[in-house]
């Protein structure tokens, strides 16, 4: 797989570079303002290196899940403004994805200039299952540039026009973010330093089942929190009240517990409330005493201590998924405590993107405490599952 440094060594001054970036940032539902610019900041090293080398950069990205047509609420206008602030230069936004305005603006770029295309998912062909339909859009992308740089690690598990098909049409390299993500994930999968502890949270066991199956033979401990823990607790015979439960996964969880023995560590206490609300009265109970009319919304303090002990001696840690509903103040303590324990690890600590990365920032934790904060939750998990990621496979071709 060729790198950005390989491309820079060849020289890119005056050349147009099609850069696929991951700028899929969260927006406030009312104001549509960016609430976490972490992914934009993560794109800067590759983007600035290209600018410094005199490239004319055409940036492609997606935001949210528009239905294959222009939708103002998913416009990249706010992203273009923030990107310009961080780069210290004007970043114009094309009025379309790869149409007349994109072509005109790309043709007018000078050395070191940056253009952001409108949300690539405004084109239905971007995510089409039809190779020819995606290919038609990729042809239009390729016409905008001379070379392709993929720095959108959060999208490399997608066989999309701006990720996969354009790489078949242009000379291509991996950007610095993709290279860093790949290096870290390789360290997690190939002879990690032990003890190796994985922390998994989030809502559903079904979403994490494949990665659990793939990691169990490799880890020393698998700590399970979040909503998914209640299906495991039910598999142990505990009542879980109104907590999130995937009844069809109970037998699977029971099998995993039998196979793993003490390598799967579950919560010992949980924070409960009668409803999903920041104003609800909370109680902390042992996992075998969850009231029938309550639902668990966070792991309790004894669980944080127990997980902290497991993490305290670890040399390699991968964490994906919050321990509770960290967006609401009464249910933040579990995620905060476990996140702090991950950050204190004397070794490689990896935050596996998605809600985990968002929690680190929302809770005001020091990002520098972690060895790596991934930008790609889904891509990270699929890589750890051992699946081939189309966006990486095409770069290696």
UniProtKB/TrEMBL annotation:
Q: In which pathway does it act?
A: Carbohydrate degradation; glycolysis; pyruvate from D-glyceraldehyde 3-phosphate: step 2/5
Q: What is its EC number?
A: 2.7.2.3
What is the recorded name of this protein? Phosphoglycerate kinase
Can you tell me which residues bind substrate?
A: 22-24, 39, 62-65, 121, 158
For the keyword Oxidoreductase, the answer is no
State the compartments where it is located. Cytoplasm
Q: Where does ATP bind?
A: 208, 296, 327, 353-356
Q: What is its main location?
A: cytoplasm
Q: Where does (2R)-3-phosphoglycerate bind?
A: 39, 121, 158
GO annotations under biological process?
gluconeogenesis; glycolytic process
Indicate the segments annotated as coiled coil, or none if absent: none
- Quaternary arrangement and interactors, per the entry? Monomer.
**Known Gene3D superfamilies for this protein?**
Phosphoglycerate kinase, N-terminal domain
Q: Name one Pfam family in it.
A: PGK
Catalyzed reaction equations: (2R)-3-phosphoglycerate + ATP = (2R)-3-phospho-glyceroyl phosphate + ADP
GO molecular function terms here?
ADP binding; ATP binding; phosphoglycerate kinase activity
Q: Extract the SUPFAM superfamilies matched here.
A: Phosphoglycerate kinase
The record's Gene Ontology cellular component field reads: cytosol
UniProtKB keywords = ATP-binding, Cytoplasm, Glycolysis, Kinase, Nucleotide-binding, Transferase
What is this enzyme's class at the first EC digit?
A: transferase
User: In which family does this protein belong, per the annotation?
Assistant: Belongs to the phosphoglycerate kinase family.
Superkingdom assignment: Bacteria
């Amino acid at each position: 797989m060729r790198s950005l440094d390989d491309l820079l060594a060849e020289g890119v001054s005056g050349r147009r570079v099609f850069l696929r970036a991951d700028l899929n940032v969260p927006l406030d539902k009312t104001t549509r303002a960016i609430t976490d610019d972490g992914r934009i900041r993560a794109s800067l090293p590759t983007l600035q290196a290209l600018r410094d080398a005199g490239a004319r950069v055409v940036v492609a990205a997606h935001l949210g899940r528009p239905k294959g047509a222009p939708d103002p609420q998913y416009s990249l206008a706010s992203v273009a403004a923030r990107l310009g602030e961080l780069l210290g230069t004007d970043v114009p936004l094309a009025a379309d994805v790869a149409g007349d305005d994109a072509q005109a603006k790309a043709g007018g770029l000078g050395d070191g200039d940056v253009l952001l295309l409108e949300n690539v998912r405004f084109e239905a062909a971007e995510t089409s299952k039809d190779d020819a339909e995606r290919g038609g859009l990729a042809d239009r992308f390729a016409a905008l540039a001379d070379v392709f740089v993929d720095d959108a690690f959060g999208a490399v598990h997608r066989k999309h026009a701006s990720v996969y098909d354009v790489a078949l049409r242009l000379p291509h390299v991996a950007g610095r973010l993709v290279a860093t993500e790949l290096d870290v994930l390789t360290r997690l999968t190939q002879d990690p330093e032990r003890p190796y502890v994985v922390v998994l949270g989030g809502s559903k066991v079904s979403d994490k089942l494949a990665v659990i199956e793939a990691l169990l033979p490799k880890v020393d401990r698998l700590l399970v929190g979040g909503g998914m823990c209640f299906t495991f607790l039910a598999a142990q015979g505990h009542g879980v009240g109104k907590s999130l439960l995937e009844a069809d996964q109970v037998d699977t969880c029971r099998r995993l517990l039998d196979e793993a023995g003490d390598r799967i560590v579950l919560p010992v206490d949980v924070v409960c409330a009668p409803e999903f609300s920041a104003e609800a009265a909370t109680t902390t109970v042992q996992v075998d005493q969850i009231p029938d009319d309550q639902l668990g919304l966070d792991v309790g303090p004894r669980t944080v201590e127990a997980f902290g002990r497991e993490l305290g001696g670890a040399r390699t840690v991968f964490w994906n998924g919050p321990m509770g509903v960290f967006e609401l103040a009464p249910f933040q303590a579990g995620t905060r405590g476990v996140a702090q324990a991950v950050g204190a690890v004397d070794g490689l600590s990896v935050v596996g993107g998605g809600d985990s990365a968002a929690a680190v920032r929302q809770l005001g934790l020091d990002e520098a405490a972690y060895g790596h904060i991934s930008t790609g939750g889904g891509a990270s998990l699929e890589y750890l599952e051992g699946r081939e990621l189309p966006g990486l496979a095409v770069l290696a071709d």
